[in-house]
Design brief:
The complex is a heterodimer of chains A (571) and B (307). Chain A has 571 residues and is an alpha+beta fold. Chain A folds into two domains: 311 residues, Periplasmic binding protein-like II (D-Maltodextrin-Binding Protein, domain 2, 3-Layer(aba) Sandwich), CATH 3.40.190.10; 222 residues, Dipeptide-binding Protein, domain 3 (Roll), CATH 3.10.105.10. In chain A, 32% of the residues lie in helices and 19% in strands. Chain A is built from 18 helices and 19 strands. In chain A, the strands form five sheets. In chain A, strands 11, 12, 13, 14, 15, 16 and 17 form a seven-stranded mixed beta sheet that branches. In chain A, strands 1-10-9-8 form a four-stranded mixed beta sheet, with helices on one face. In chain A, strands 4-5-7-6 form a four-stranded antiparallel beta sheet, with helices on one face. In chain A, helix 11 runs antiparallel to helix 13. Chain B has 307 residues and is mainly alpha-helical. Chain B has a domain of 181 residues: MetI-like (MetI-like fold, Orthogonal Bundle), CATH 1.10.3720. Chain B has twelve helices and no strands. In chain B, helix 1 packs antiparallel against helix 12, helix 5 crosses helix 7 and helix 11 runs antiparallel to helix 12. The N and C termini of chain B lie close together (7 Å). In chain B, 36% of the residues are buried. The chains are: A alpha+beta (571), B mainly alpha (307). At the A-B interface, helix 4, helix 8, helix 15 and strand 16 of A face helix 2, helix 4, helix 6 and helix 11 of B.
């Protein structure tokens, strides 16, 4: 038994080595700087052990997935039309499309699929599978949480409206509406998308996990089509086992068109919370672990651990929204812009990061985080500035016809028991001590909090936003346009600029427009920007070829096919 | 006796009914929906409405209850609203075994260590074995299991590397969780055993046995322990039920794929079907354990008769 196993390892290692000899450097883009082309110095056991979530990924159905733990798996086992470079530029490299063409009016995108691509079950990947997948994602009966990203497809608006209709439409009406969608498989390799308006950002949508191809026959297997024995993969890896609440294992997909992954197995262990994962890392049970805030100092002071740390930006923004909506039944002082500015400027965001956040992250002064392609820290935001805050407060008091700051009492909403209370208490202390306004924290259990947000939010409410795709549209339009914003915010002038950007073909021409829009957003201050997330993750020294990007849902998950293991005992 | 057991089992039905109605009403009274993600991204209301409709959550609550009972009677515990594509029955079937193993082992450890600890403490009252036993018990009762669990991991996994920090794959994975979970049980069993042993020590029949010149061992096991056992048995039933249905804390710290974490997670996530299932499971277990305890009384103490 033992002999057979070890022979198997040797054979496949030989195959990998042979592949390297022919194909050149397999780890093409070593962004972490620790990678080199693997030759004889590979560990015989090419197994990478990662932590999944504290609970089972809720689903591996690509159309339905929304949680980090689901996306972590999907990034490796499924592939959309387009993919990214490590610098987060769009590319066909690593995607299933060989090329794409945008019509002169900007309203039709034609994707040409690569030749001879196939799923893990051996069936060819055809354009019809994309039509099926996108149609299924939009189908109100699927109730896909992320369906809205496809809203600009011709006919998608009507279908999306059906989901919220007072009288739910019948199956016939739904089918009819779905037949009207601007999606067509011209031939096996040509997938055509018609848009209801020129939407330059739309190519980025073709990188999201919900847009991967899905075979109709796969979904027809029934409820358990996402179980390992039924799972059909289009990515570099495929699902080998899924022991619920225990472990998921991925192995290379033999039908992947690109270079074969170097790892033989990725094990994703389920069940440990972030503290537990960190202990697993210390005991050598997982190869990658985020550093829990409470342990950040310990890691920085430990020469061995700090050498294993990978830091970087993450495309997420933590903010306090202001409830400016006069229609939800209450008048709030935060409808006053000067007061919103005063509050933004009175929050010591750097101090917050240094203390409560243990130095992880960066103070935010606008919504789009640093690390987004084309986004520098503009420095036009309402940073921490107590003098300016005082001036703004005085203006606000005059405009609100109040005598003193102590006449202002605000509620601050937060979801309880998720580690946010210390941050809220820090902000509360800032506002009470430096501005003299009263702030009462309302901590609610998550389900209750979301209901409050939907019905009548607190004066200030905590939320965060992470990129679905690294394009400014996903930040400014998807969160703050009149159609999408919460808290009653609406700036039609900004919306016009955003619409202008959406029909501007080249990214470099769009960026100045987005910058202008963001400037308006910051000035309007529908929220106080608190911090941009940061990464502080430990990686075992023998993990090679890892390519971290700011858009990873978990470290390096977009390029797992390039990772390999150098001898463990030498590391 | 048999009639008594049958009657008690028959009583289970109204008990389960009342528990299910109360749980059903309480969980639906709490605001929120099972369909919200745990990430910072509230779903559009339209999607939630659609999902609630799909799963019948838009119906009046009594209809929902009747539907649920109907499904239960057909052996269908319904879907998990949270975890797509897995039924509640699947989740319980997949996760029950680890909890049963963990619970039974912890129970066994609690009994094996707790009873001798209590007996020794009682026999050597106010001497050092008593103080030692009391010390262990107080620590066991006062230390929350999450402190004990994390402490054990930090010492025996992270520092000494003797055991894995988490998982449930074999004997080496069992040691720390079982010790962590049984800490409270050991202490509780020891305290009860000590107290009731002390009480029987002063009884006339013990003095008689001593004056007859019986060996101490036989006095302790036959005359004292058996009589001292009734209060201890009373707590053993619920203890076993509690240990078997799992511990949220211990299962979370050690990443054990058990049922315990669902008790808490399901409630926070409003996963209605799962809440009902685990609550009823717990209710039935408690009721059955209490029955077992009552039957054990009669076996331990022939003076107790049921009619």
């Amino acid at each position: 038994m033992w002999r057979r196993t070890s022979l198997g390892v040797i054979t496949s290692l030989a195959l990998v080595l042979a592949a390297c000899g022919e194909g050149g450097s397999p780890s093409a883009a070593p962004a972490s700087g620790q990678s080199a082309a693997p030759t004889q110095d590979m560990d015989p056991d090419q197994t990478l052990v990662l932590a999944s979530g504290a609970t089972d990924p809720p689903t591996l159905d690509p159309n339905l997935a929304q949680d980090t733990s689901s996306v972590q798996v999907l990034s490796s086992v499924q592939r959309p039309l387009l993919w990214f470079t490590p610098e987060l530029e769009l590319t066909t490299e690593g995607g299933l499309a060989e090329s794409y063409e945008i019509s002169p009016d900007g309203q039709t995108i034609t994707f040409t699929l690569r030749e001879g691509i196939a799923y893990s079950n051996g069936d060819p990947i055809v354009a019809e599978d994309f039509v099926f997948s996108w149609r299924r994602a939009l189908d109100p009966r699927t109730a896909a949480p992320y369906a809205y990203v496809l809203a600009d497809v011709v006919g998608a608006g009507d279908v999306l409206d059906m989901a919220g209709a007072e009288d739910p439409p019948g199956d016939n009406a739904i089918e009819e509406a779905l037949d009207g969608l601007g999606l067509s498989a011209v031939d096996e390799r040509t997938f055509e998308v018609s848009l209801s308006r020129p939407a330059a950002y739309f190519l980025f949508v073709a990188t999201i996990w919900i847009t991967v191809p899905i075979q109709e026959s796969w979904v027809e297997i029934g409820e358990d089509f996402t179980e390992a024995e039924n799972y059909v993969s289009s990515g570099p890896f495929m699902l080998e086992t899924w022991a619920h609440d225990e472990e998921i294992t991925l192995v290379p997909n033999p039908n992947w068109y690109g270079e074969a992954p170097l790892l033989e197995t990725i094990r994703l262990t389920i069940g440990a919370d972030p503290d537990g994962v960190y202990r697993q890392y210390q005991n050598g049970e997982v190869d990658i672990s985020a550093v829990p805030g409470a342990n950040a100092e310990q890691v920085r002071n430990d020469p061995e651990l700090s050498a294993q740390a990978v830091t970087g930006d993450v495309l997420c923004t933590y903010y306090l929204g202001f409830d400016q909506d006069p229609d939800d039944g209450d008048e709030s002082p935060v409808q006053n812009q000067a007061l919103r500015h005063a509050i933004s400027q009175a929050i010591d965001t750097q101090g917050l990061i240094d203390t409560v956040r243990q130095g992880i992250g960066r103070p935010a002064d606008s919504f789009i985080p640093v690390g987004m392609p084309g986004h520098e820290d503009y420095g036009f935001g309402l940073g921490y500035d107590l003098d300016a805050a005082q001036t703004n407060l005085e203006t606000a008091l005059q405009e609100l016809e109040l005598d003193s700051a102590s006449d202002i009492s605000l509620t601050l909403g937060v979801n309880a028991d998720a580690g946010h209370e210390p941050i809220m208490e820090f902000i509360q202390a800032n506002l009470q001590q430096d501005l003299g306004i009263n702030v009462e924290i309302e901590a609610q259990e998550w389900s209750v909090y979301l209901q409050t947000l939907a019905e009548n939010p607190q004066d200030m409410y905590r939320l965060g936003w992470c990129a679905d795709y690294p394009h400014p549209n996903n930040w400014l339009y998807d969160v703050w346009s009149c159609d999408t914003a919460r808290g009653g915010y609406c700036n039609e002038e900004m919306d016009e600029i955003l619409a202008q950007a959406q029909i501007t073909p080249e990214l470099e021409d769009q960026l100045p427009l987005y910058e202008q829009a963001q400037q308006m957003l910051v000035e309007d201050a529908p929220a106080a920007w608190i911090y941009w997330y940061g990464r502080f993750t430990l990686v075992k020294p023998y993990v090679q070829g890892l390519v971290p990007t700011a858009a990873d849902s978990s470290l390096g998950d977009m390029f797992m096919d390039q990772v390999w293991i150098s001898p463990r005992d030498e590391a | 006796m048999t009639t008594y057991i049958i009657r008690r089992v028959a009583w289970l039905i109204p008990v389960v009914f009342v528990v299910s109605v109360i749980t059903f009403l309480l969980m639906h009274a709490a605001p929120g929906t099972p369909f919200q993600p745990v990430s910072d991204r509230p779903l559009p209301p339209a999607v939630i409405e659609r999902l609630e409709e799909q799963f019948g959550l838009n119906e009046p609550i009594y209809i929902q209850y009747v539907n649920w009972v109907g499904n239960i009677l057909q052996g269908d515990l319904g879907p998990s609203y949270r975890i797509r594509g897995r039924g509640v029955s699947d989740i319980i079937a997949d996760n029950m075994w680890a909890s049963v193993q963990l619970g039974t082992m912890s129970f066994a450890l609690a009994v094996i260590l707790g009873i001798p600890l209590g007996v020794i403490a009682a026999l050597r009252q106010n001497k050092w074995p008593d103080y030692l036993s009391t010390f262990i018990s107080v620590i066991g009762i006062a230390t929350p299991s999450f402190v004990l669990a994390v402490l054990l991991v930090l010492i025996f996994s992270v520092t000494l590397h003797w055991f894995p920090t988490s998982g449930w794959r074999g004997p080496e994975y069992w040691v720390l969780p079982v010790v962590a979970l049984s800490g409270y049980g050991i202490a509780q069993v020891a305290r009860y055993t000590r107290a009731s042993m002390l009480e029987v020590t002063r009884r006339d029949y013990v003095r008689t046995a001593q004056s007859k010149g019986l060996k101490e061992r036989s006095i302790v096991t036959v005359h004292m322990l058996r009589n001292a056992f009734i209060p201890v048995v009373t707590i053993l039933g619920p203890l076993l039920a509690g240990l078997i249905t799992g511990s949220f804390v211990v299962e979370s710290v050690f990443a054990i794929p058990g049922i315990g974490r669902f008790f808490v997670d399901a409630i926070f996530q409003r996963d209605y079907g799962l809440i009902m299932a685990v609550t009823l499971l717990y209710a039935v277990l408690i009721a059955v354990m209490n029955l077992v305890v009552d039957v054990a009384y009669a076996w331990i103490d022939p003076r107790i008769r049921y009619s």
